[in-house]
Queue: 3 jobs
Job 1
Amino acid sequence: MSDNYNSAHTFRPGGGMGGMRRFGTGEKAKPASIYSMFVRIYTHARLEWPSLIAAVVCVIAVSLLEFVVPQLTRFTIDHLIPNKRFDRLFLIGGGVLGAAIALGGLRFISTSLMASIGQKVLYNLRNDLYRHMQSLDVSFFDRNRTGDLMSRVTNDVSILQQMISSSMMQLFTDFFTFTAIAIYMLWIDWRLTLLLLATFPFMILTTRVFGKRMRSSFRTVQESVADVSDHLQNSLTGIRLIKSFTAESYESERFSERTRKNMDANIQVVRLRAAYEPIIDFLNYIGLAIVLVFGAWLAMKDQMTVGTIVAFIAYLRLLQNPIRHFSRIINTIQQSAAAYERIMEVINTKAEIIEKKGAIALPPLRGHIAFSSVSFAYSNESKVLDAFSLELEAGKVTALVGSSGSGKTTIAHLIARFYDPQDGVITIDGYSLKDVTLDSLREQIGIVSQDIVLFNGTIGENIKYGKHDSTEAEVIAAAKAANASGFIESFPQGYDTQIGERGVKLSGGQKQRLSIARAILKNPRVIILDEATSSLDTESEQYIQDALAQLLRGRTCLVIAHRLSTIQQADQIYVLEQGCIVENGTHDELLRRQGRYSQLYELQFPQTDAAQ
Ligand SMILES: Nc1ncnc2c1ncn2[C@@H]1O[C@H](COP(=O)(O)OP(=O)(O)OP(=O)(O)O)[C@@H](O)[C@H]1O
């Protein structure tokens, strides 16, 4: 039986950061174009249409005012000076000053409006990105580095912010000014203007050539930022390990390797920009030379007034300003395009675990789980389970034991549908997991695993994570059932105690009991305990065992334990080796059988009489 998992593949583009860009998608990600970036930004921005219209009106007004000033100059030179019109000088001065004040005011309004539109667009984009990331599968997070993903949501979105808030408005203003002035100049003197415009194809060509290189350099910069961020994330969370291995200088060296890559990539970008700007300036000077020489020649032949030449040169500056700006904006645009590409790689990644159309919401479960001929492999790796069958009886405790890597945790992940098997069916109360909604399935499953995840916040908030709308009394009851209320109440702030990042301020056993309280509060029908009692001392273990007994009562439980002492009461124990069940029975039955289980048991309890 094939399914959507089979059709999906991993996109591993070559090149970037030692092949570390790994995006699982159903289809190969296309590089996002600058055009699609603008379309997307516009789609978000148009929701702010009143501000957008106001900003556009301001821009048009700015362009018109910029147009008026050279006309005043021309009028002064050609009419007022020759006719000695002293009386009009005051008006001209007032006109220029008035235009300057209006220009300042209009620019202030348009900049503020655009900045706020930009911020709103980014607010939406960042939230969309985060929401989409949350909807992606566990396998996506297996493939991609946390630091890299963090950098996409923070750094790459911030780069876009710079472009939307300032550069886009500038681009629009410049485009409008350029078109209006070019048309006017063609009208004044088309020969001179055409000569002038002859330099433009070279500018466009230069911009294209440099643009491509800049974008690829920016991509390298952003990947190196992601690499730095990933290293930071790993080394800061693993600081205790680093210290215990006295690996501080080794880590510092590895960090400086990454920052060096970032520095080199930035230097490359600066070099490109440093080469690009003078070329554009040189082409601008060619334009100026053309106007001067050809304009002066026309004036000497009385075919043009001096005022027109002066105005022409002023317009030339206005015409060249957009180009000069553009040479700077292109930098921001290319940088943004590289950032946008990285953002879109995430947004275009499709979840592989999807609800089929018409998926039904599971009713309250009894909790009978069955694997029928299930085969599963992580991505392209070898099969972890091959034609595997297993039944978990409703309301009973089923234990899985077996050597490391035999596939126990994988079975738990398949029940919660973190992954889909390539073959076979998994059912719960007779419903295939693929026929039901993910929420209705996961809401009824609780997982308590060896990697306890606690969030920075208070003890109360962490327990409440099991059921966000629970009352204080429910939280306290869950903590009591999990044997956690004693230590919680011994803290001066009780349930309001801040537990620090990942619960660093708590002991291993305390964290474990919080995670059990959280699961008790959730009150799921099915419980998966993944080595929940490893690495605890005997006293803590007794507390945990009592808490677990509370948690398991009356539910369907899958217990994965290396420590065979924890599963002696299980209703059924399955011994797993390389994805296959080699024996099953109760603890006593298995010991009597003298098979793999009793071997494992003797290994753990050498002095114990295996037959007891
Ligand atoms: N996310 C993953 N991506 C790729 N391979 C994986 C992944 N998780 C586990 N594996 C591989 O699948 C196999 C089964 O792993 P699993 O975690 O299910 O074993 P386990 O029996 O729970 O082991 P342990 O008792 O050591 O936790 C192992 O070979 C492991 O390397």
Job 2
Amino acid sequence: MFENLGNKLQDILERLQREKTLTDTQVKAAMREIRMALLEADVNFGVAKEFVARVSEKAVGQEVLGSLDAGQMVVKLVHDELIQTLGGESKQPVLKTEGNVVFMVGLQGAGKTTSTGKLAKFYKEKGRRVLLIAADTQRPAAREQLRTLGNQVGVPVLEVANGETPAQTRQRLNEFQQTDFRDLVIVDTAGRLQIDENLMDQLADLQTALQPTETLLVVDAMTGQEALSVAKTFDERVNLTGLIITKMDGDARGGAALSARFVTGKPIYFAGTSEKLTGLEPFYPDRVAGRILGMGDVLGLIERAQQADLQSMETKKAEEFDLEDLLNQLRQIRKMGPLGDLIKLIPGMSRALPEGFSIDEKQIHKIDSMISSMTLKERRNPKILNASRRKRIAAGAGTQVSEINKLVKMHEQMKDMMKMLQRMSGGKGMGGMGKLGAGMKGGRGLQPSQMPPKLPNSRR
Ligand SMILES: Nc1nc2c(ncn2[C@@H]2O[C@H](COP(=O)(O)OP(=O)(O)OP(=O)(O)O)[C@@H](O)[C@H]2O)c(=O)[nH]1
């Protein structure tokens, strides 16, 4: 997601940065290109127009033209404007101590049921007592899907029976609460392929009965900004409070996320980043803007590392990090999401990597079998592997010698990455990184003032 847009914006901005000073004509030309790049990424026309108008206006107002670091100032303006377009400050549902009811609405296939399961996991891990309600009576399989997700997360699921009235559902919820009190109830409602009156009536009735404190529209990023066209109708009938954008891990162009705030007027609370239950992240406009401009997302990386509970990394020094550790960590990291995504969170990496770069998950399996075919001594110091050992290990793992060579190289790169992270944590290992994250304005991400001085070098 955002890869094409990011590359284009970075190219335009890099060109500006190479100039000593900027003329009015240069800035205007760049703004036209930015607008084109946004439109090609399927961003709403009005959003693209306003985006460029605001950056241009500020560029004039701040007397960028003629100033010495004009290019860098434009980068900052674009970065700031991206943050604003994505919603400005990160917003999250405000939960009370008890009595929280979250309604999940959206079109069929948007990812409602999956996101309901993910939210249950997210909040359960925050100490909430969650109950799920499977209210999708249109599609019996959806109730079964939610039951399975509930089992996986370890939260109960109350299933709405066919023909049950909203008042009866309320009654059953009250009875449930008396025997097994829950402070957060998440309701997976019925979806349709298209908006239909009957569905809206049903949702509105259920809403009146259950009185949700949050009503979240789930939208599919792969559908592009078109996915947002339903928001108005949903909002008119059930008063949306926020959005969840799913399938941000796909190759969607970014139009939905970038247009969402402008088109719907609602904040994006969460982004779905995989099919797995762990694939849900609170949405941070500043971090996403940083990723689009190739500035990475160090805080996102730290959070994932912490969640993966990378115990040995806490104490290991980068130089000591060997293939045995890599094997253990890979098994942990795989729980956290695709490695290709993690690497792109490192500042500068999205530009440094070859176009279309991705890590095949099968590749990770292969790495696992390659390391498993080595002796402990070799895992500790892979540089001792001579040609014949590399050949035998490759055969044992069902792969080529070139793959073993790549693995040894990747190990070195990982050590470099760790060195960088450890330097940032003041040499305290990954354990210290949490303190760094917490120290950064409530861990909300890099602020514009903390931007790297230049955009990372392109693939020149
Ligand atoms: N890659 C990816 N796939 C997702 C994500 N969220 C949901 N999906 C997939 O999208 C498909 C549809 O998801 P569901 O949760 O069944 O959709 P729904 O909106 O509940 O659909 P109905 O119950 O039919 O209304 C499933 O295959 C999910 O695994 C995501 O963030 N990333």
Job 3
Amino acid sequence: MSEVVLELNEVAIYQKDNLVLSEVNLTINKGEFVYLIGKTGSGKSSFMKTLYGDLPLTKGEGKIVDYDLKTLKEKDIPYLRRKLGIVFQDFKLLPDRSINDNLLFVLKATGWKEKPKMTAKINEVLDKVGMKTKGFKFPHELSGGEQQRVAIARALLNDPELILADEPTGNLDPQTSVEVMKVLQEINKSGRTILMATHDYALLLKYPSKTLKCDGSKVFEVVQKSV
Ligand SMILES: Nc1ncnc2c1ncn2[C@@H]1O[C@H](COP(=O)(O)OP(=O)(O)OP(=O)(O)O)[C@@H](O)[C@H]1O
């Protein structure tokens, strides 16, 4: 039987008092790769923010990796985010420290204590994204694509049950976007579940997968031909 990692029933998403999306119903099962597409301002980021607890869920029911979004408390949010790997368009690496130290910072902040285990984990995730030899570098010494691969490695540190990627290729040129996408595809093949918001239709065509579209304040699944 498939394992559900995300389930939304009749969810409405608001920014302040403005209704952004309504009657959202969807299920994502373990192992799926799902795109979230839609025009600028259609609600993709608001949707993602609701899933990682940045916007409260006030209407409808939502369950994500065993957390109930409706009853989620402020103090639960860091624990929810430990079960999610979040990747942003702008990488969000700390500029004042090396890649290894960026990853170490996250491990320490999420309760890791033993140095050998931390070092092993950092090597493991950097290896997964093809960046094992670059851990000593500072973010500004890396290309945009390399920085995003490090950001993906960071998202993998706590073995997330679901990876939320909000426009992960939004700042990258087409060729680099494909390279980052290959990394996400490999991670998905190794069993991780990924929800990726994007407006990059070329990627969708190159790597077809289940696609949800935000349009007219609704979210619905689309068949590839009609995106
Ligand atoms: N912090 C905010 N306060 C109020 N309204 C907001 C806020 N952030 C976004 N909105 C509004 O919510 C709606 C959805 O925006 P959202 O950023 O979710 O869209 P998007 O599909 O992610 O767009 P983009 O592709 O440009 O990032 C828009 O009308 C936007 O103006």
